[in-house]
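Hi P.,

Sorry for the delay on this. The queue was packed all week, but I finally got your sequence through. Input first:
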Amino acid sequence: MRVKFWGVRGSTASAITGAAIERKIRRVLDYARPSDILDAASRDRFIKSLPFSLLHTYGGNTTCLEVRTKNNDLIIIDAGTGIRGLGARMLEEGFGRGKEAALLFTHTHWDHIQGLPYFIPFFIPGNTFQIHAVPDGIENRLRYQHHEHHFPVTFDMMTAKKKFIQHKEGEEFEVFGVKITSLGMRHPGNSYSYRLEEDGHVLIFGSDAEFKVDDMDNIDEYVSYFHKADVLIFDTQYTFEELLQKIDWGHSSASIATDIALKAEVKRLVLFHHDPSYDDEKLDEVHLRALRYKEMADFHRSSNLEISMAYEGLEIHI
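Then the structure:
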């Protein structure tokens, strides 16, 4: 499997501002020495030495992931604003003429469906989409977003063929040869994680989940479900301090995610569902704090857990 991130924000999309770009430029200039700009080679070395937050951006689109099977079949997880860019790329791969893909929906809060009205492959006759969900009434939920009070184009005007498939929590089903199971997460209005397995390799998408410090002695079901996953993508919207102030808002912190990943012997943890108020430098800090916390929490275990930050364009081969 291969997973690519098209949207990594939670709650609402957040575009980078001109003021933020100016701050980046000023900081880059602060880093630079005369020897860094002598010629093309020195400039290239200097640019490559810059921290992620100055050279790139984590991105501002809401949740959307592209999963490719070993046969290059396409499974899309959620349809936040990131799906618009994915849809444009899909047109270059034959979805302008007619192909098939699948969508998995974790739940239908706005940040997980709001990109669907701008998903061009849905408008093209000849395309076919399997739409899988555990939340009940998924078709009606998606149609409701296209009510004239919310959007000028009706759902039926999106003329690709859509096959709605409802699943029960924990039910095992198969999509393009990938075995998929689900587990409910602790989130207002309910959200469901998905465990995708192909040829013994496991990807788990576990966003929109709230685990409190007091919960950590009672998570055996989740530890078993996440056990030895190759990649666990997990909700880390808040810092630990914010988590204490936003109880029952439905999200977790990087330290909680790290604890869970260590307990479950996960190989790689990807911090995800970034708060829309966090700029790139703050997200760098979140990543650094998670790495330091892992060193402290894992002092006696010597785990090989790798911790990454999700950013738009990140690709992981599993």
